[in-house]
């Protein structure tokens, strides 16, 4: 049965079983390999994508449930890798092995979209369930704060630039 949705701003139509996990559609059918398989039970966060802006574990999400929705993977977070979370991750050299980082960044991006200046408690809640086997949690938290600062600075710059162009 064919399912239609948007992925990273582009229309997609896939003819797969209704209960096929979205993760496998993304990786095996659409050939987007940034989203990782971790546990297959929505416990580790490696497979996190955004569905209509909400962070979602794609390993337990049936493709039938995303028909007509907008999906964003790590590849679609920004066209050139300049999302504030991506920049902060690079600046602070967060990854060790890097396997979990796409899911970490996608969860961070969703948090910052809703809460531009998150508290430690909000970060803890948003990132709960995103596991890092290498234990880079301190750098991840630092990067989230840095991404918030970069986002705020970017928003101020865009507002200033827009004001000057009027």
Structure report:
- It is a single chain.
- The chain has 166 residues and is an alpha+beta fold.
- The chain has 2 domains: 75 residues, Ubiquitin-like (UB roll) (Roll), CATH 3.10.20; 82 residues, Orthogonal Bundle (DNA polymerase, domain 1).
- It has 5 helices and 5 strands; from the N terminus they run ββαβββαααα.
- A 5-stranded mixed beta sheet has the order 2-1-5-3-4, sandwiched between helices.
- Strand 3 and strand 4 form a beta hairpin.
- Helix 2 packs across helix 3.
Strand count? 5
| Broad CATH class of the largest domain | Mainly Alpha
The count of helical stretches stands at: 5
CATH topology of the largest domain: DNA polymerase, domain 1
Compute the average pLDDT.
93
Characterize the main sheet. Answer: 5 strands, mixed
Spatially, the strands of the biggest sheet line up as 2-1-5-3-4
The fraction of residues in strands falls at 5-15%
Low-confidence regions? none
Shape: globular
Helix content: 40-55%
Radius of gyration: 16 Å
**What is the total domain count?**
2
Could you state the CATH homologous superfamily of the largest domain? [2Fe-2S]-binding domain
Span from first to last CA? 50 Å
CATH architecture of the largest domain: Orthogonal Bundle
Q: Please identify the structural class as seen in this structure.
A: alpha+beta
Order of helices and strands: EEHEEEHHHH
